[in-house]
Design the sequence.
């Protein structure tokens, strides 16, 4: 039993904390929300020098070959800073399945360019309905003898507007799970991309495919077995998102605790009032609980390669806790917490984005129930 | 990072499981504080205490010289979790002796006290059963406000006053007692002393207080010129508050695994119930609302499990937990309240059936929990008291009371 990070992981954590608070203060976060590309390419380039994009990419493909838990450290810190970048999309949603399901040629073609920060990737899976389920996948890829032709549309594809490559989850047959994952070059005229305006400006896009040609060589994993790829990446990416949320919750707790010590009313710091103090304590308990559930899921995933139940538990908890600490945090701040100038609102705006990444609460609770043998 | 137990702990878990199956059989087990209520249950629990002592489990974390096994915090964690899962009675012998008296005596007691009292606890003897008398009518959450007086007269203290909510007083041979020895000490935390009271002493009146479920767990104690030998003073006179604070620390790591073990059994009962009960032509387990309620309970239990692991791990590294213990207590209270209320929603109208009735569902486990959780949340410090501790010692906020 060990709740600690390794010494190296602690070093990575300190480095990430320093880097992110220096390179991306909240003023910058707010500015980036309004920009066309939604991230800072200069910071992205500096991240390459730190080796972040290649952190978990094997050394033979130009990465550092670090373990999944190292990535958890990084995501926690990115969450603490609500750092806007295509990192989660490129690494969590695309690189992880590329490493697992990519063939040799695909890996040597794509991974070095990710590690060097030259390529950004986005996952295109959710459609207009907004649900994550194989039956909802209507965007189809039809084989014409030489190529697959993709027609259809994808919604809420994060950072698709700046991505060099897309992983597109397409229907390739009538059976509900006859689904295939394709690697698609994002440069072509037949792909139309619009930003979906969202409350945190996190780079969500609608992507429309009209007769887009893709070679069979660009299938990721096996034909008609694409949902396996989805399940695999969902598990890992979900835990990464949880770590990001845990970091964000920690930040909200810290800023609210500090405010409760400084803000004087009735000649006392408001944190001395039991109603306020107990709310903060409840926040702390929830945030610590979340953090440990995330660590457990991440540890199981990195040692056993699967943690279905624990991933679902961690994410269901993350969704609940993120919302709770933001709401209570804002209430403790009072009117100032309701302003654009205060950081807490930046976190609150991101709650729903984090919640609906790769599924929703109902889906996760049902996954837990299935694992409890409730059949 | 690593969240598994070692082989030693896993084989201990297996042994405890086999012990429980063999000893408890299909008997409806009454354990925890409730075992103090009926004579039959108490007799069975004392029988179990003896067997647990023979196994070396009862006080496994104590040093060998005091009748323990010098077991690690991890072993103790697994034992408590598994014993609570099966509801083995007699694991605490009325809570106090095993919970804090033994360890407090090891630290603050003199040699005579150590050799007289500790082996009786470790052996699971009826003469090793203790109660603890801290609370008074006007010393509840504000428990430094102790008024019971002990006045020294030669080689005895003369004791007068009243204690209340004393669990197990009607079963205990000894009482771990906090009294005021110096009323002029200024701060109310000063002038308190700890002493050992022989429950057979003349002048003690024990009056039962029945809880609303009809169980006799706690009592009122009245002292009318009770003579306590001065050699029964623990540590130094007027320094009892310091010992009290230390003694509270001893039960800290056991709260979470104890509640977790019990709760995970009850959740399993509920799952089994949902799988075998039919509603609208289908089993209840297919109903999305029922599924989600049970999934929510699983999230709470998993969080509690991690809190328990964390405190055990910290203690294994020599860290003395402070706010963590308060957090675990507060979270335990939350978890069992939610499990009890959710459980009643699932078993529905049957949740009110008496636990001894042949019509009761899932062995009365939900009804019992539902009847007990409000009391358990108050015992050992209310939610509010725990949260004040966390606010002050972890979040660094000013005192809120």
Sequence:
């Amino acid at each position: 039993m060990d709740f600690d990070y390794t010494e190296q992981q602690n070093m990575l954590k300190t480095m990430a904390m320093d880097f992110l608070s220096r390179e991306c203060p909240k003023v910058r976060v707010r500015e980036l929300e309004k920009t066309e590309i939604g991230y800072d390419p200069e910071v992205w380039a500096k991240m390459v020098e730190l080796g972040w994009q290649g952190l978990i990419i094997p050394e033979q493909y130009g990465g550092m070959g670090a373990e999944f838990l190292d990535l958890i450290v990084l995501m926690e810190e990115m969450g603490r800073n609500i750092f806007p970048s295509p990192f989660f999309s490129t690494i969590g949603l695309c690189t992880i399945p590329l490493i697992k399901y990519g063939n040799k040629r695909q890996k040597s073609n794509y991974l070095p360019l990710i590690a060097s920060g030259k390529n950004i990737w986005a996952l295109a899976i959710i459609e207009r309905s907004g649900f994550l389920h194989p039956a909802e996948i209507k965007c189809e890829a039809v084989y014409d003898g030489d190529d697959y032709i993709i027609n259809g549309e994808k919604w809420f594809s994060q950072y698709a507007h700046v991505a060099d490559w897309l992983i597109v989850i397409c229907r390739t047959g009538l059976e509900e799970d006859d689904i295939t994952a394709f690697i698609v070059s994002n440069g072509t005229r037949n792909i139309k991309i619009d930003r979906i305006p969202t409350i945190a400006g996190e780079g969500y896009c609608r992507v429309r495919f009209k007769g887009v040609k893709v070679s069979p060589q660009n299938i990721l994993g096996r034909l008609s077995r694409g949902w396996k790829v989805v399940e695999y990446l969902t598990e890992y990416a979900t835990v990464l998102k949880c770590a990001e949320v845990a970091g964000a919750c920690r930040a909200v707790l810290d800023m609210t605790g500090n405010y409760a010590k400084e803000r004087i009313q009735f000649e006392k710091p408001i944190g001395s009032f039991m109603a306020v103090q107990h709310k903060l304590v409840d926040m702390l308990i929830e945030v610590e609980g979340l953090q440990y559930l995330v660590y457990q899921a991440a540890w199981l995933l990195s040692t056993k390669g699967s943690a279905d139940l624990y991933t679902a538990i961690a994410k269901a908890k993350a969704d609940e806790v993120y919302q709770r600490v933001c709401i209570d945090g804002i209430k403790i701040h009072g009117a100032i917490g309701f302003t654009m100038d205060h950081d807490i609102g930046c976190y609150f705006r991101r709650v729903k984005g984090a919640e609906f990444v790769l599924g929703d609460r109902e889906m996760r609770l049902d996954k837990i129930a299935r694992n409890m043998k409730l059949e | 990072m690593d969240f598994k137990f070692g082989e030693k702990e896993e084989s201990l878990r297996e042994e405890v499981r086999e012990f429980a199956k063999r000893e408890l059989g299909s008997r409806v087990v009454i354990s925890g504080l409730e075992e103090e209520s009926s004579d039959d249950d108490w007799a069975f629990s004392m029988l179990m205490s003896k067997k647990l002592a023979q196994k070396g489990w009862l006080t496994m974390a104590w040093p060998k010289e005091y009748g323990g096994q010098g077991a690690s915090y991890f072993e103790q964690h697994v034992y408590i979790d598994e014993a609570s899962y099966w509801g083995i009675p007699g694991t605490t012998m009325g809570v106090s002796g095993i919970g804090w008296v033994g360890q407090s005596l090891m630290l603050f007691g003199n040699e005579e006290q150590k050799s007289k009292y500790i082996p009786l606890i470790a052996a699971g003897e009826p003469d090793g059963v203790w109660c603890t008398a801290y609370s008074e009518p006007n010393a509840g959450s504000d428990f430094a406000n102790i008024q019971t007086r002990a006045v020294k007269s030669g080689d005895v203290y003369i004791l007068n006053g009243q204690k209340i909510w004393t669990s197990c007083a009607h079963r205990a041979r000894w009482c771990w007692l906090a009294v005021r020895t110096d009323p002029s000490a200024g701060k109310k935390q000063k002038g308190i002393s700890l002493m050992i009271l022989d429950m057979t002493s003349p002048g003690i009146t024990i009056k039962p207080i029945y809880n609303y479920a009809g169980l006799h767990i706690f009592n009122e104690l009245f002292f009318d010129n009770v003579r306590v030998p001065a050699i029964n003073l623990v540590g130094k006179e007027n320094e009892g508050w310091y010992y009290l604070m230390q003694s509270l620390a001893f039960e800290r790591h056991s709260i979470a695994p104890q509640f977790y073990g019990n709760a995970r059994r009850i959740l399993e009962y509920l799952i089994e119930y949902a799988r075998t009960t039919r509603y609208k032509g289908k089993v209840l387990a297919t109903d999305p609302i029922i599924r989600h309620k049970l999934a929510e309970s699983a999230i709470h239990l998993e969080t509690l499990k991690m809190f328990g692991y964390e405190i055990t791990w910290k203690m294994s590294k020599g860290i003395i937990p402070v706010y963590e213990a308060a957090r675990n207590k507060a979270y335990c209270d939350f978890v069992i309240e939610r499990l009890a209320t959710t459980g009643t929603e699932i078993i529905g109208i049957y949740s009110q059936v008496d636990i001894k009735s042949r019509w009761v569902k899932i062995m009365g486990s939900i009804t019992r929990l539902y009847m007990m959780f409000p009391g358990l949340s108050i015992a050992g410090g209310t939610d509010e008291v725990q949260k004040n501790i966390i606010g002050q010692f972890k979040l660094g906020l000013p005192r809120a009371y």
